[in-house]
Amino acid sequence: MPKDQEYQPLINNPTDDGVPPPSKPAWTSHFSRTVLAGLLIVESIALAATIFALFSRVPPASYTVALDSQRVLYSPALEAVEHEVQVYHVGFASDLSPFQIPSSPALDRMWSELYNFGISRITKDEAARLPNKTHAIPGDDGHYIAELDVFHNLHCLNKIRMALDPDYYPDWRISTSNNYIPTQTNATEHVAHCVDWIRQSMMCNGDTSVIVWQWQDFQNTTMVKGNVAHTCRKFDKIQDWAKGHRLQNEYDPTVHIEDDIVVPILHNQIP
């Protein structure tokens, strides 16, 4: 607490020279103790009343809460989060992942199976707890549409992958300053969006796992080692959650449904 609010001793200690202070008449000591007790009772009642007033206050509908560094925003999929330790594939010839194969229907299928169930349906109660408002699903009473951001990230990364092989995916050939292609404007804007979205996501979820350097006798030098341990959320658990919350019918974005869900202003500023 601030220095000017710190408690001070009510009675001074004896002097340092060992000589006790002069004694006071008994009636004076009794009177002082009575006054002191009365003051303490009054202060205790006032403190209790203040605490009660603070905790019984009902916030208005537009109440905002400042986010601190440790706050986790609500997600209905938090129930599916489990952690595990994983070591990434380094991605070079001696340690390729199953996804490092040439563009093909097989590769497209592998990518699609990562996130093709990513649009979810959640209950109204879950929707009401989100930090941003979402829309009801027409024809599916009591349910609202949602998507976990990890599946949007995977969608974006897949589009970037496709743009890197325009001979196989001509619809995703992007236009650059040296290669302007008017018909590819949508692909170019989409990929630019995806690159920056993934940048923001990586910065938001900053992985603090530590890459190391180790001595290599055969090269007489230290070399960077990427095959290190990472603390990861079990992706299959999040996939299971999403598969269990798939849309039951095709979503019609042209139907507007009014509801009574109100979210805090702080988290409802995003269109």
TrEMBL record:
Signal peptide: none annotated. Pathway: Mycotoxin biosynthesis. The keyword Transport does not apply. Keywords: Membrane, Transmembrane, Transmembrane helix. The keyword Isomerase does not apply. InterPro entries: UstYa-like (IPR021765). The chain crosses the membrane at residues 35-55. Residues 1-24 are annotated as: Disordered. GO terms for biological process: mycotoxin biosynthetic process. Belongs to the ustYa family. This is Tat pathway signal sequence.
